[in-house]
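quick q for whoever's on today - can somebody do inverse folding on this one?? i tried earlier but teh output was garbage lol. tokens:
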């Protein structure tokens, strides 16, 4: 049963990570029509972090202490942001915009 719990934790985090990356691509690109891309990225980051907190933060608190949680989540969040920026830049280069 514990093994199932670990897999559920990993899969849920992977899905939320993908959702965060998608939010970090879609929200800024859509908002950039009306506001600067920098402000749009901040709003995208706030929405993505909110999704993380709602969906998986409690389980992280139950499994890890504050320092480990900070380190692991920093790596996950920054990697999602970097992937989102790469996707966004690649799409814009391919579209010629």
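ok took a stab at it. sequence:
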């Amino acid at each position: 049963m514990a093994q199932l719990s670990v897999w559920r934790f990993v899969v849920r985090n992977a899905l939320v990570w993908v959702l965060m990356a998608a939010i970090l691509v879609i929200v800024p690109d859509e908002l950039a029509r009306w506001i600067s891309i920098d402000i749009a990225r901040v709003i995208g980051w706030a929405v993505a972090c909110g999704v993380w907190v709602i969906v998986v933060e409690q389980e992280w608190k139950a499994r890890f202490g504050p320092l480990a949680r900070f380190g692991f989540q920093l790596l996950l969040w920054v990697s999602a942001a970097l992937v989102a920026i790469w996707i966004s830049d690649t799409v814009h280069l391919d579209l010629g915009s």
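fwiw The chain has one domain: 2-95. also The longest helix spans residues 2-31. so keep that in mind when u check it
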